[in-house]
Amino acid sequence: MEKTYDGRPTLLLVHGAWHRASCWAELQAVLTAEGWDSRTVDLPSTGKQGIPTAGVYEDAAAIGEQLRSIEGPVAVLAHSYGGIPVTQEAGDHANVVHLIYLAAYMPAENESMYDIHGLPAPEDLSGVFPLIDDPRTSLYGDLPDAAAEAALGQLVDQSLRSFAQPVSRAAWRTIPSTYVVCERDGAIPPALQESMSAHAANVERLASGHSPFLSAPVELSAVLRKVLTAVSSGD
User: Fold this and answer.
1) 97 vs 118: CA distance, rounded Å
2) What is the mean pLDDT of the chain?
3) How is the chain classified by DSSP, letter by letter?
4) Separation between Cα atoms, residue 40 and residue 60, nearest integer Å
5) Over the stretch 81-107, which tens digit does the pLDDT of each residue have?
6) CA–CA dist 86, 11 (Å, integer)
7) CA–CA separation, 53 vs 40, rounded Å?
8) What is the pLDDT of residues 55-85, one digit of tens each?
9) What is the pTM of this model?
10) Rg (Cα) of the chain, in Å, rounded?
């Protein structure tokens, strides 16, 4: 059956480090109930089995494959690390009408996550990057204990290479973008988010921790609806 368009872009949801696409399930349920179409992608730098070896460019290629499979306009929502391969890839796709960085890294050309944090990149890029300190608090500080334990149980390994490779392009220079600052984030300091948000055309804020797609999916959906309604109307 041919898809009909009502002016709303499809949302492509790109997860962050140590996560898989399944982390978006609660937000997708809210989006579907509100009439928004969404898709996800599993990044190859996150490994469910074995040690992942893929980096930014393989992740970017996976995002590109998904973008090519979607008919009509697309808005890309990137969370945390996901902002890096989205920044690398999205500019190559004419159907991408907006970028949304959710507590996400928003690098300029030749910047990696190490660069953004002012750290020297390791010479050996093999292996995995250790899980963030105190992930219960850092990633899920505003989740109830049971929900946080369930989320922690879904985390997987993340390749070191993905954190150390720089982007060669910056899609936000040519595609309109919104940065959503998570004001109670325990993983990416809000001050760093505010600094990166200077690259964006629009800034929104959520009084949430690092993972509002789990802790505040309704509130996050409201922000997305506000942003994407403006995109659809051409405001």
Assistant:
1) 31
2) 95
3) ------SPPEEEEE--TT--GGGGHHHHHHHHHTT--EEEE--TTEESSS-----HHHHHHHHHHHHHH--S-EEEEEEGGGHHHHHHHGGG-TTEEEEEEES---PPTT--HHHHTT-PPPS---SBPPPPSSHHHHTTTTS-HHHHHHHHTT--EEBHHHHHPPPS--GGGTS-EEEEEETT-SSS-HHHHHHHGGGSSEEEEESS-S-HHHH-HHHHHHHHHHHHHHHHHT-
4) 13
5) 999 999 999 999 999 999 999 999 999
6) 13
7) 21
8) 999 999 999 999 999 999 999 999 999 999 9
9) 0.95
10) 16
Cα 107 to the chain's mean position, in Å?
13
Tokens encoding 49: 């089995």
- Tell me the C-alpha distance between 64 and 93, whole Å: 8
Domains of the chain: 10-233 (3.40.50.1820)
Token pair recorded at residue 174? 């040519």
Looking at this protein, which amino acid is placed at residue 27?
L
CB distance 172 to 202 below 8 Å: no
Residue 124: pLDDT over 60: yes
Q: Which residue has the tokens 């959520």?
A: 206
Q: Which residues contact 107 (CB under 8 A, 6 or more apart)?
A: 83, 84, 87, 113, 115, 116, 166, 167, 170
First to last CA, the chain: 31
Residue 212, number of CB atoms within 10 A of its CB: 25
Half-sphere exposure of residue 169: CA atoms within 13 angstroms, side-chain side: 14
